[in-house]
Amino acid sequence: MPAQIAPEWKEPFPPHRIIGNIYYVGSKGLASYLITTPQGHILINSNLESSAPQIKDSIEKLGFKFSDVKILLISHAHWDHDAGSARIKQITGAKYMVMEGDVLVVESGGKADFQYGNAPSNLYPPTRVDRVLHDGDEVKLGDAVLVAHLTPGHTKGCTTWTMKAHENGKSYDVVIVGSPNVNPGYKLVNNTAYPQIARDYERMFRVLESLPCDIFLGAHGAYYGMEEKFARLKTGAANPFIDPEGYKNFVTEKEQDFRTELKKQQAGK
Ligand SMILES: [Zn+2]
């Protein structure tokens, strides 16, 4: 994401259960997910350097312990999703697991990023990675199994997480989208820092299209209409986070945005 901190990134949001053992513990603008198991928890996204107390607070409000976070994962190596990792690792002792293409960025505190490496406001404490992930790798804790899908372009190691959720005797496919966005200033043609960027975006869209999805989630709540769906939780009707159509529409729309931008850049505009 761009260098400015959006106010809603720091604004607290009520933590809530999404489905099964998956909970939202992020801020209004930055999604974090807690996957709970009797053997400890998995946290996806550490958010800003200042976010750790907010995430801790959300986890405790749900009745869980921050110190039970055993594994820390991210959507991708941008400061709005990973700047808090050093602090969270330090407090919880969680093992940090990151997709190969994002490892250098995470361990350099953002300096190795192809787009934002020279932007001081986008840098953060370098954080050591405990396990390097590759496409298709599984992350297991207790009875939870998450699959890491390499969905590159937005960052070189951008990761879309999938898992199964279980509720009322039914099983659901969960997709947590890494990011399909082409940020302002991204060069899709003649990018010397990331020559294969356009091909990577193509690959990412093929992967997103291929994933079965009942529960549509992502790195920012705005991807899936988090606030509006959260408001519907209270009505006690069907789980609003079950949204396969919303997922399909999102992927289609984002691919169109990518194609429009690619054409524009290929035409030299
Ligand atoms: Zn990003």
Précis, in short:
The protein has eight helices and twelve strands.
Identify the strand order in the major beta sheet: 1-2-3-4-5-6-7
Major sheet details:
7 strands, mixed
Stretches where pLDDT is under 50 for at least 5 consecutive residues are none
The percentage helix is: 25-40%
Helix count equals 8
Ligands? zinc ion
Based on secondary structure, the structural category is: alpha/beta
Oligomer: single chain
Distance between the termini: 22 Å
Query: Beta fraction of the residues?
Result: 15-25%
Shape: globular
Describe, in plain words, how this protein is organized in 3D.
- This protein has 269 residues and is of the alpha/beta class.
- It has eight helices and twelve strands.
- The chain has helices at residues 7-10, 52-61, 79-82, 85-92, 100-107, 197-210, 226-233, 244-266; strands spanning 16-19, 22-24, 33-37, 40-44, 69-73, 95-99, 131-133, 138-141, 144-150, 159-167, 170-177, 215-218.
- The strands form two sheets. A seven-stranded mixed sheet has the order 1-2-3-4-5-6-7, with helices on one face. Strands 8-9-10-11-12 form a five-stranded mixed sheet.
- Helix 6 packs antiparallel against helix 8.
- The protein is globular and about 55 Å long.
- It starts with 6 loop residues before the first helix and ends with a helix.
- 48% of the residues are buried.
- Zinc ion (ZN) is lined by residues 1, 76, 78, 154, 179.
